[in-house]
Amino acid sequence: MDLSINGTPAGTDSEFPYEFYWDTKNDPEGFYELTATALDAAGNAGLSTATIYLASPLDTEPPAVSILSPANGSEVAGSFTVSVSAVENTAIDRVDFYIDDRFWGTKGTSPYELTVDTADLSEGEHTISAVARDTSGNTAESPAVFVTVLGSTMEDTVPPEVAIGLSQAGSVLDGTVMVGVSASDDVGVACVELYMNGTLVHSESSGTLYFSWDTTAFPEGNYILSALAHDTSGNIGTSPAVTVEVKRTAETSTPPTVLILSPRDGAWISNKEVIQVSASDEDGISLIEVYIDGTLIMSRSSSAFSVNWNTRRESKGAHVIMAKAYDLKGDVGTCSVTVYK
Fold it and tell me: Smallest Cα–Cα separation from 308: which of 316, 298, 322, 323?
């Protein structure tokens, strides 16, 4: 018994039952014609054909999900906001929020945030987690965050921490640059604001902000970027100022936009951390690499993924996390943060 696929010989089996193995993982989606040819002892041939449709494989990759705020070990009072990062190679269907393993709410669109009133919680320690579900039905649960609910007499006077990150390395910019602002607070972030030369250019009612800056629409020269973060108690945190120069180049090549979603720049890390990276480009992403202190620890042909980092063996002090993304034209985009142990 001989088998052919679209007229190409695919195998021969001389013993009953006649069976053939077809590895379809490298074949494109579409229609295929299978033809089985049988020969008897006299040399007579019999044919049987069948047409099948080979479908694309199902999406089985779960989302990458983590809690951006409140920070692990925070003390909270009054109302606070739970902010979640959920990244998926297709699309996020929803994010469910849990406190002490009890369902607390859901959000179907970004930003994935939920306001919690501590009047509904007892004083003491509570566990917060989130479950992200993509449109293919895959789910993933975030690492748990522990918070302590304080008594009503406690007053929050601590301002949020806020930092600015750029998708282009260096201080000389050209083309379109993604400006990211990340803020965290022991109670909850109400909003973040991005300023350029003292003028408000963008704001978000969450702990994260992304602003696509087309520098070709601005005159060449120096620009000072700064950010403010407001917490739910009215305290205001100010980021360190970032000074950049807009300068035209002979040829403008647009590198991928790459962001390190967590941990944030300047964070103090625990024994286990989850590094989350995301990249985008109009030509498509071919590869993302993650480096720690200049050493490559992970590479993947994906536009977003997370890496579990066991920091127990890392020395105390500063460590630099860098993400490098390559698009299909070979352009390279980078993003780096410095964390401390």
Answer: 298
